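ingest -> validate -> predict -> emit
validate: passed (alphabet ok, no gaps, 506 aa)
predict: started
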Amino acid sequence: MKRASLVVGLALAVIGGAGACLFALRGRPPRVEGVVASEPTRGAVVICLDTLRADALSLDSGRPVVMPRLEAFARESVAFADATAPSAWTGPSITSLLTGLDPSHTGVVGLPERIGNLSSAVRTLSERLASAGWHTGAITTGAWLTPGTSALRGTEVGLRELDRDPEGVISRWNARRTPGAPCFLFLHTLAAHDPYLDKELDDNAAAPSADAFRTVDEVRARAIAKEVADGAMPSDADLRWSIEIILGSGAHRARLRTIIGPAPLDALFGILQRWLDDRGERDPEIVSLGARLRAAYVESLATVDRLIGRILDALAAQPMPERTVVIVVADHGESFGEHKTLLHGRRLYDELLRVPFLVKGAARLGTPRVVRGDVGLVDVVPTVLSLAGLPTAPGLDGIDLVAATTGRSVLAERTMRAFDERRRFVDGVERIEGLESVRTTRAKCIVRRDAVTRRIIAADVFDLAADPLEAHPIPFGKLERPCGFGDAFARAMKDLGLPITCLAEK
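emit:
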C-alpha cells in the first residue's frame, strides 16, 4: 500500500500541473528533415485512446514518465504537443476525427440524448479509402462506437473485445482483410475511461465476494437508491460518495450494481450528472473529490500503458503493408475538479480538449520530434489521405499536416474550434446552453449561447501564456485589446458573433 501511495503521489504531479510503427519492422525509418520523395503508404492504423489527457505524456515538458511504452512510441514519432479535440466527449469528437469536419459541419454535436446522426452527404475516411480500393476495418470496445455508428460508415466493424484480447481480435481482423489490398484500421480502447481502477470487474454484476467489494456500504447505497426512486435529490455528501464509488473502481461499481440493481444505478448516474451541472459546481468539496479520483486515474495509467503495448505488439506481429503509418490520438480528456466539475463533456476547458497526437512511420513528416502549434483531430483525415497519395478532399476543416510541417517544428498559427452543450439550472429551471470555443496556442475564447435562440449569454477570453490553467477568465466586454492575440484569433472571435472593430481599423 505504501509503495502504491508513492507511485500515485509521484504521478499526481504529472496530471496536476510498434514495435508500434510497422514501418520499422521492414527496416530503419529514414531520418529526414522536411518532405522527402517517398512512395505513398499502403497501410494506416489510427488508435484512439478514449479519455486520455494530453498531460499523461511527458514529451518535452520535464514531467515524470508514467506511461513508458507510450512514451517510447512518442519518442519515435512526430508528436504534436498542442493538439486539441473538437468536443469534450466521444460522439462529436470521433465523428470529426473520421470526417475531417468540425462538429458544426457534421451536425453531430451536443448532449448525448440530443445528438443526431452524420448526414449521408458527409463522407467518412473509411468511405474515401474504400472507394480507392482500401480494405477498411474497425475494432472497438463498444460504448458509443457500435456497428451502426454513422461515423464508422464504410467500415467493417466488430470484434468489440479489444481491451480484453487485443492479440486475438487483431489477428482475426488480419485474417479477414483482402490480401494484397492497402488497409485502414481504426482501433478504439476504453482503457483510460471510468471506472479508473479494477475496470475488468465492472461488467460482472455478480462479482465474487472479496474484501474490496464489501467496502461498499449496503445500507447507505439502498437509502440513496430509495431517494432517487422517490424523486428526491440525495444530499451532497451522499452524491459525492456515490460518484467516488461509480468512477473510482470497477469492483465497487459492480458491487453497487449488485446491491441496488442496474436500472437504479443508471438513474443514480443521471442524477449525478445533473448535480455536477447544478449544486455540485458550488460544492466546496468537489476539488478534494477530484483529487482523489485523479489519483485513481493516474494509478490506472500503468494498466492503460500495458494494453497499449499489447496492441502495438499485436499489430507488429501481423504482415501489414509496407510503409504502414500508425497514429495515436485521444478523443477527449477528463476533468478532476479543475473547473468545479468531473467526468467529460459539458465544458470546453483544456483538461478536456488537449489530447495526445502522435504519428509514427510517416517519412514525409520528417524526423521524430515534438512539433508545436495549432493542430486538431480534424487534421487526421486530410493527413492520412495525403500520406496515401490520394487527393485531400476540398471543404474539410482539417489540414494536411505533411504540407504544414515541411521543415517546421513550430506550425503557422491557426484557430481550432470546439463545440458542446451543457445544462444550466436557474432557480431550479433547466435550460440547455450551447458552448463554442476558439483557440490558438496564445489565447482561447469560450462562448455560451442559448441553445434555442443562439443568443450569446457570456463570452470569456483566456490569456494562455499568462494563464495556462484557464483559472482567470476575462469577460469579453473587459478585454482591453480585442486584437491583442493576433488577427487570426480576433477573426475567430468575430465569427462567433462578438463585436470586433479593431480588424476594420487595419
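The first strand starts at residue 43 and ends at 49.
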